[in-house]
Amino acid sequence: MSVAFRREDDDEHKEPKFELPLPPGQNLVTRRGLAKIEAEVARLEAAVAAETGEEKRATLKRDLRYWHARFSTATIAPPPPKDEVAFGSCVTFRLNGQTRTVSLVGSDEAEPAAGLIPFTAPLAVAMTGAEVGDLIDFGGRTAAIEVLDTRPIAEAES
């Protein structure tokens, strides 16, 4: 049948709507990360209830399914070892002559600009298990990272 004889509201010509992809692996979170997930679920539930547009409501419901899945699979990680870089650590390190401090958090809590990087990021993976004074290979370079300090993220931070 010619496109000229179709109704404009036929769904077959629309882009398919896919579920939001879940990050692979275990859903480790800090207490702050779990609170962020809970807040997003509450915000989306209210938005779904208030939305009258069918298409926007469908998008909100899809987002809500994602956050419900993240909430139901969230596991608060145990505190990291005191002197070892792990999930939940605040790490100060030197890379390319610059000193930086980052916190290793869950995927949903990550905000790289704020120094919160996911524990699955290449930088976090490279540093995991390191101790103060260790030199770590990174980005194809030997001893590219020097760990200067590591400590558990403070409760106020997490």
TrEMBL record:
Gene3D superfamilies tied to this protein: Transcription elongation factor, GreA/GreB, C-terminal domain
A Pfam family that the UniProt record links to this protein: GreA_GreB
Name used for this protein in its record: Nucleoside-diphosphate kinase
Alphabetized GO MF terms: DNA binding; kinase activity; RNA polymerase binding
Keyword terms of this UniProt record: Kinase, Transferase
The Transcription elongation factor GreA/GreB C-terminal domain, residue ranges: 81-141
GO biological process: DNA-templated transcription elongation; regulation of DNA-templated transcription elongation
Organism from which the protein derives: Sphingomonas desiccabilis
Region (Disordered): 1-24
InterPro entries xref list: GreA/GreB_C_sf, Tscrpt_elong_fac_GreA/B_C, Tscrpt_elong_fac_GreA/B_fam
Regions of compositional bias (Basic and acidic residues) in chain numbering: 1-18
